[in-house]
Specification:
Elements (H helix, E strand, L loop, with lengths): L4 H15 L2 H8 L4 H9 L1 H20 L37 H9 L5 H10 L3 H10 L15 H14 L8 E5 L7 H12 L3 H17 L15 E4 L14 E5 H9 L6 H17 L8 H20 L8 H12 L2 H4 L2 H4 L3 H21 L5 H16 L2
Parallel strand pairs: 1-3
Antiparallel strand pairs: 2-3
Bound molecules: zinc ion.
The site of zinc ion (ZN) has 5 residues, from helix 12 and helix 13.
Length: about 400
Amino acid sequence: MKRLKLLSGAFLLMAMLFAGCQKQTHSIKEETTAGERSAVKSSSRVAALKEGIEERLNRLKAGQENRTITGTRFLLRQHPEYRNLLLNALNDVPACNDDTKINLWLNDQLSDWTATVVFYAIETGMLDYPTYDALIFENSGAGQVFGAQGTYTQRLTKTFKDLKRFWDIESAGIVMVAMHGDMLLDREKIIRTDMALYGTTEEDAGAWADLIIEIINAFPQYRMGNHPIFTFNAFAQKGFDPGTPYEPIPDKIVMGDGILDGFNAIGYGDVAPQAILAHEFGHQVQYQLNLTGGSGPEASRRSELMADAFSAYFLAHSRGQSMNWKRVQQFLQVFFNIGDCSFTSNDHHGTPAQRMAAATWAYGVVEAAQKQGHILSAGAFASMFDAVLPQILNN
Ligand SMILES: [Zn+2]
């Protein structure tokens, strides 16, 4: 029995997403990789270590068979853009375009992940700790560093300020925080996150933390937690108070190192951080103006397409980022295809064509607005968007 069904399912989905397509997923599961065999052969220490890890893993699991997520108050309210925890319809994943640069890049990053490496990642649930640590405990924007090397700190900080100035909402309380995979080596952070998510005792959480740290240290494939798969994510969270003993969680945008580094690696470092942040900020606008419009696939699709439009309007507007539209389009072509392998983009984000139509529509509004020299109010922009949504969906 897996430790946590829901999140393990999410990891399987991730593995599928980041391996590109189903066929790669199957190959990753096969116990046939040369790297693994040679690793075992070259060092009996590794074999002994694996035995030790598995024994402890089994013992821990036996002690906590009913270990399921109890911290439902912490489940992401807004699905993350690049990783949908709640998707269970794996069978519905459409044929994906594994020729997109980002899929190829991610596939390449996972090329040395053996079945053992995947197995431990799933069984320990390690993928989820960076996300939930950032969601629950990173509640101040002060001193945040973005990107594993801090590459995007200055630019994202500036863009965030620009966004707050651009849209006419109460934005002073919105915080932007980073998500770093190397928290997987931080015992205290793993413990606090484990206790919050699973309702474990400090002692049990400590045992998990020790095991995770040992595994991360033992397998170089995890890159000391800095593998992009741990943080290939960005999301917007509406503020809420989880109650004692936690601090209230402010309206928040979380930017993972992995997604920033990934788009930089494939040549979109000039536009991706701003565009992704602007999309997430669009969700904060929606929260504040009550524009999310309920639940279900249609509401979700509308929210996502509207966030794309908010983003494009800001990126192209002379008083926003004043970016070259051709360049923005080039990035969006890649960005919108990310959904193809990850979840049912028809239901959740709109198709790539619909998303591009939403962005293109917003660009047209920019041109009209600039003649009048002003920035539309967020509410007016959203109303205009809703009026054209049926046409956008025809794409
Ligand atoms: Zn979104």
